[in-house]
Design brief:
Four copies of one chain form a homotetramer. Chain A is an alpha/beta fold. Chain A has helices at about 15-25, 70-85, 155-165, 220-235, 285-290, 300-305; strands spanning about 5-15, 30-35, 40, 50-55, 60-70, 85-90, 100-105, 110-115, 145-155, 170-175, 185-190, 200-205, 210-220, 240-245, 250-255, 260-270, 280. In chain A, the strands form two sheets. In chain A, strands 14-15-16-13-9-12-11-10-17 form a nine-stranded mixed beta sheet. In chain A, about 60% of the residues are buried. Chains A and D meet through strand 17 of A and strand 17 of D.
Chain lengths: ~300, ~300, ~300, ~300
């Protein structure tokens, strides 16, 4: 089966109290555990123990975790990682609270990726028998789940190859310089299943180890607006949107958490398929790819990475 | 009864062929009559002969028309106009094709306003007996009707007073310098009925006679997105949005017609009431008033008038 | 100016505790005052003291109130009422808490209508200076305001004539037996301004004094669904919908309060205009008029009046 | 990799001309090929040659096709099918126009299932380089793709087991008699990836070989309404909706094609995951599972199979 999905993201925040107000009160994530400088959270529609971990100290992404279907998948990924030539390290159950043993990999881009086969099952407030549509009392935006992350790379192509070769991800969409250089990815959107992306990569100078954004899924264009309204009331800085991406066709708002990490609320987008042709975007059309409605790009899009 | 609503707007366009493609193919208005350098159009849900008139030559607003309930209202407005001290002139049936006789007024801001009591009744394609929800074949955005116009003024207060004293409009929302200067309108949103605005005014240097934007009504946030999608495909330049105004709470996209006139698709907003308190916006909060979601203002907002 | 709008509705409920849970916790109305067997409530976007009054004991509508623009309008309506030939009675400030003096009229249909020129101004939680889009913490459905009521009549035509002659309402849409009997209204939708209806009337045997439904306004199709989802969780019985009316084009859910009074959440609909032609529906098309999407009518529609 | 998705459904129709009007003009599918009594269609966002095949003569489902990732998957499924004990037969490239060779299986429920690894690639009108959001000119509802089918079974459990054992599908949701009989499926929703269901099964007397419904995907609640509006204008009979399912949380309208086959437009629903706990619905709550908003079930739901 292999990799199921992006399971968790550890995000560094400069001020834990401000981060709590944002991620809990504004975004509506549930705090599950606080240990040392780390706060573990989950969305209401997630059933594993946590998907977002706030780590006080600095900004950016500390590490990301991918869940695989079964313990054997860890071995396969370890073996393929060695063949690919990245550094790996076994991780022990308990290295991360409520997460099984697994593998820790350093990507060519310098990001730390963990692979695990189990998390403590927590379930959601609607239960599994005759469930209501959602919990009656959601807080703020009430985001149901983590969706994807866009990581920075000095060189996208090598890290992209890692995800394809080792994780068996496929390319949903790609940004290329022009049609004469189709072998070169300036950015790539990679999926393990039917979502538009589990992970995406974007290239830039000194982008290695950096986070472009972390995205949470919402349900549809109306919920994107509701999120924007709550952000307005709670004074959350907006980077872009509401708008629709040309790439993935997702509806979106980019915004910043109190530490300056870019986050995204993301909804819809077409059903990705492994046999669907990869969409290609040439660099001259990148603005429409990111912001299909107004077809311009904020300067911050390429500068504000953490 | 008095003034019913904004009935028509004459917009100057530099290139009639480009304007036709935009207003007919992209916006979905119906061409009703073409005479000389003028094209008369209507929205699908309007029943009078026309609401938008394109005049080839230049840019900006040539004149706006307000419909009153009955012929006597013309006399009342003529009398009040004289008392107020603006220049008026009787207009004859046929001065505007398919429009009754009425009154032509020069506003303190220099804009030409016409008042009329009748237009040729045309109806809509769904008829008046057991109507379908909308005509089966709409073109492009398929905008149903004109909504309002925002006019520029060197001094908003005098022209605002005209609309209140002579047209019996009331103030729905107002932009003021600060709470110590509540008697001074920097911008004002004026209504005759339950819509958030039939006409609005904004102050700036050399704004007299100018058009800030002309707005068309759509039905809700989803239709705002659909409009933005069509604008993307048809390469219509976007100025702002999709977003929601703090002022009126309308959902919106500002965009430019091929001549550079700012237009707006506008949806929702609260039900305005004559006895509802006027909302006040202080100048330091104007960005949130215009763009409630991202709370920033394009530079073009105050510079791109035609 | 005359009648501004439907201002309040007194609804009889069999069980005040159940009614409170419904109107406050599910619908999100604010309790403003409780005196004797009466509870006064308002929606978050209303500025007058109350719009819904629950009266313990029985079911149906005890009375409805219409707000006029100024005290003189009361005199005009009193005079016209006498000419029309309905029974009137002066009401004193304080007859209804926080409501001015006015006039009480017994409609030909037996319903009690009150006319008043003032209510205690309360305002809303977003205030009138640089207001947020809505209060951050709304309860349940969070309905912003009352919209309209549909009253039963043994004979619609006389009561319709009252609203036209005395209140100066106009006919937005009408249900007629067939095109050969256009002078006979089986149901009528009447407006004072730009809303699709302030009051509507429907004819049936022993319908006099009865309530078909009381409607609250929501903003758009997405909020109609959200309301339906909350009703599902809170186990509110649905009568019809979500769907769209052919008549007024409003989006709707009909549902029952715990006492069996039909209520409606209502959104959108076209902009009504005094000079817009009245839409006619023939009796054979009534199902599409009420439920444009599935074009069938529940049996309860004509039987469940309170 | 195994089974990617439901790839095509052959639907029997009594009248090809009426079916064409419905599937092409109302639903907006593209006719790709007509041979003998068969018409091959695709949705605008599908890239393989066809997904819906209309076969003149009778009603119901003639056969369904599932696409697998690679030719080897055919062999695996053939082998597993024999182990499971269902009848299989090799099919040749060209048995179905534009479809590769593969395997034909007779399900325990009597339905014919075909498995194939390739179809002629056709692509969509937006292309694969810098694509627009959708083709500028869509017809009617403009449905982008097929979503799933719900098949009838005299005994769900055996056919469910087939899809789990042979196709490696997993259970997203299940209807059971009660919590004391959790091993018995009265209905089941089965997925191969992250969609709520590729195939679903429902049990009833003489349900074998029958079709409950065939579903097409739309994007969100607003497009569900737009579909309902077009169905109203085009006089398509509605069976249920617009509403939201409790099961899968999809938004939906059930309707009938001109031959009486139930179809569905389906949108949203949560992201299904192989490790997500299967939701259980007890028979007493089935009405809420199917129609979460009004929590009642049409009689037709269990009787109108074709």
């Amino acid at each position: 089966m292999g990799v199921l999905r992006l399971g968790y993201v550890h995000v560094r925040v400069t001020d834990m109290e401000a981060a709590k107000r944002h991620y809990i009160n504004t975004m509506g994530f549930y705090p599950m555990l606080e240990v040392g400088n780390k706060l573990y959270l989950k969305g209401w529609d997630e059933f594993d123990h946590h998907s977002i971990v706030l780590e006080e100290g600095g900004v950016g992404v500390a590490k990301v975790g991918f869940k695989v279907a079964k313990p054997d998948d860890i071995d396969v990924i370890e073996s393929k990682s060695r063949t690919f030539g990245v550094e790996t390290q076994r991780m022990t159950k308990g290295d991360n609270p409520d997460v099984s043993d697994g593998l820790r990999i350093t990507l060519p881009s310098g990001h730390i990726v963990e692979v695990y086969h189990d998390q403590t099952y927590v379930g959601s407030l609607v239960g599994t028998v005759n469930p209501q549509l959602f919990p009656r009392e959601l807080v703020g935006i009430g985001a149901p789940r983590i969706d994807h992350a866009l990581l920075g790379c000095d060189d996208v192509n090598t890290t992209e190859k890692f995800f394809i070769d080792v994780f068996d991800f496929y390319q949903v969409e790609r940004l290329i310089p022009d049609l004469d250089h189709q072998d070169c990815s300036l950015a790539t959107w990679l999926s393990s299943g039917n979502r538009g992306h589990d992970i995406a990569l974007i290239q830039g100078e000194n982008y290695d180890k950096k986070l472009h954004h972390l995205a949470f899924q919402l349900e549809g264009w109306s919920d994107i607006l509701k999120a924007g309204q709550i952000m307005s009331i709670d004074d959350v800085p907006i980077d872009m949107g509401p708008t629709q991406h040309g790439i993935t066709r997702g509806k979106t708002i980019y915004y910043f958490d109190p530490s300056g990490n870019r986050n995204e609320v993301f909804a819809d987008g077409y059903v990705a398929q492994r046999d669907r042709p990869t969409m290609l975007w040439t660099a001259d059309q990148v603005a429409r790819g990111i912001n299909a409605i107004n077809r311009t790009l904020n300067e911050t899009f390429t500068t504000a990475l953490t």
